[in-house]
Amino acid sequence: MTPEFTADEQRALAPFFTNLHQSVFGLKLPQEVAGALFSRYSRSTKSLRRTFLDEFLGDPELGLKDLLGSQTAAGDDSAALQKARAFYDRVLVGYGDDSVAQLGGAHLACENISNVAAKLLEDARIGIAPLEKSTRYVRFDQKDAAGNYLFYREPRIMASHHHDRYVEVMNLLFETYSKQMEPMLDHIARSLPIEQLEVRDPTSGKSLSYNESAKDERLRRWAETAYRATVRAHACDVLRGYLPAATLTNVGMFGAGQAFEYLLSKLYSHGLSEAKELAAAMHGELNQLIPSFVKRAQVNDYLIGTNGAAKAAASEILKSLPAAAGEPVALIDYERHAEEKVIAAILYPHARHPLQELRQIAALMSAAERRQILTEHFVQRRHRRDKPGRAFENVYYTFDIVGNLGLYRDLHRHRILTQERQEFTTVHGYDTPPELAEAGFKTDFDRCMARAAELYENIYRDFPTEAQYVVPFAYKIRWYMKMNLREAVHLCELRTMPQGHPDYRFIAQEMWRRIQEVHPTLAEVGKFIDWKSYRLGRLQSEMRTEYKRSVYEK
Predict the structure, then answer these.
(1) What letter does residue 446 receive in the DSSP assignment?
(2) What gap in Å lies between CA 44 and CA 47, rounded to an integer?
(3) Could you tell me if residue 384 is inside a domain?
(4) Which of 31, 33, 103, 185 has a 20 to 30 A CA-CA distance from 506?
């Protein structure tokens, strides 16, 4: 294989990364630089090291070249670092003080992993901050040096009689995605030409037609650049339904040592070979960065035993019952005395009474008295970043959701809640973006989905867990989310913004409708739920981005 970097580039990169040739590697960079690098990398087709080389290393403001040869960049042999590791070893291993492992962390990049593996990494809710390659800003029609589309060749499938069909169907999905990209870009541009759009001046906030904005050269340039980016993102949104869960992606992550230790144990204990291989690769790199924190990461017999027992029980109990999709959003559990709990919690910091007594007092209030207390929390909110107080964490909702894998990937990012998914499957059917039908691609889309479903069923009989790799993003999966009202406000207001994908905007709107049905007064706290639907909803956001970029470049 041809090396990705020249000899000179390798010498320049070596001080900043734990290796230059493997897909999993660590970063030896200042924390702020690593965070900015991961952010840029999530919207780039380049590898992280190439992005760093092309866009960061030579930036004089970052001063990274000044670190060359210093102990900060040179690695792990400084006396200070050796002393720190000796201390952590003594406290963490010798005394078992797990909290010490929360004080150190590492940046890690995991490249060329499947979307199945990416979800396993992102399941870590506490102590891990992941950022994944975007399906909205990056086209997935590239091939590797050998001319192959970028999908995971699952070892058990590739060694079985499913090998040829697996490769055939994966190639079909990627080929169709690739062939339809340019026509879809043209279709979206024709269906909503820039001349019909309303443009908002980022400096004055004034709304103008595109023809009016064209009189101002700078505003016209902003509008056209933002429009092109929005059309591209919309086309990627529509066509991502073809992408299978085997699609290779990149995940950058920062994690505390304690969180990495538990994540590694979970991956080592998982049934998929990719998870185990990823754990070993991550462990090797973390041993170069924070070895003291991950010494105890290993296969966990408890996780293996409990997961195996639960899977066997589900198979036995549910074997005669057919799978059922149900409604997209079902509210299956909620607090019966929600207003009393919230009001008692509002009063609690300012009282000298037990919480239970305050709840009893709230229960005796009239509806008007309760509303008066709550209204102050509603009307004071100026925008969605004014978060309701902790009192709203006392009310919980459990939603059972059925939605396509593409939208699940977006909602999965929310971590201040409890959520659990079922394995990816084709049994619940799939969503067809209306733009595919409008552009004349529905027949091709249905054919691809049918081929994927047939392959899934065939592989499932032999390898039920590995069959997940076949499932395209358009297919629906089931998961549940349990969250408090404060988190529900954050999730639903954020995910109904105009620039959001229409699929998850719908789910967020339906979640809030269910809350309104059971708690109409408390639901008034969600002042910034957006109930509208949009075409090219990202346009104004892209306009603001272009405006900020132009100001910065000055």
Answers:
(1) H
(2) 8
(3) yes
(4) 185
The C-alpha atoms of residue 208 and residue 205 are separated, in whole angstroms, by 9
| 194 domain-assigned | no
Q: How many CB atoms lie within 10 A of CB 296?
A: 15
Name the residue among 327, 271, 283 with its Cα closest to residue 513.
Answer: 327
Burial 54-76 (b: 16+ CB within 10 A, else e): eebbeeeebebeebeeeeebeee
For residue 318, the one-letter residue type is L
Structure tokens at 48: 């992280």
* Secondary structure class of 123 (helix, strand, coil): coil
| Residue 68 structure tokens | 């060359």
User: Worst-scoring range by mean pLDDT, 165-179, 434-448, 466-480, 529-543?
Assistant: 529-543
405-438 pLDDT, tens digit per residue, is: 999 999 998 988 999 999 999 999 999 999 999 9
Tokens, residue 343: 């009001």
Q: CB neighbours of 360 closer than 8 A, spacing ≥ 6?
A: none
249 touches 475 (CB < 8 A): no
The answer as to whether 359 is a domain residue is yes
CA 340 distance to own-chain centroid: 35
The token duo for 423 is 């394995």
Q: Which domain holds residue 370?
A: 336-392
Rounded CA separation 93/530 (Å) = 51
Place of tokens 């998850």: 504
Secondary structure of residue 249 in the 3-state scheme: strand
Structural domains counted in the chain = 1
Instruction: Report which DSSP code applies to 424.
Output: P
Structural domain includes residue 363: yes
Residue pair 427/323 in contact (Cβ under 8 Å)? The answer is yes
Beta strand 198-200 with 207-209 is antiparallel
For the record, the structure tokens of 344 come out as: 């008692």
Burial of 420 (C-beta count, 10 Å sphere; 0-12/13-18/19+): exposed
Q: What is the DSSP letter of 368?
A: H
Its pTM stands at: 0.87
pLDDT digits (tens, 9 = 90+) for 212-222: 776 777 777 77
The residue with tokens 């009192």 is 391
**Residues with Cβ < 8 Å from 202, sequence gap 6 or more?**
222, 543, 544, 546, 547
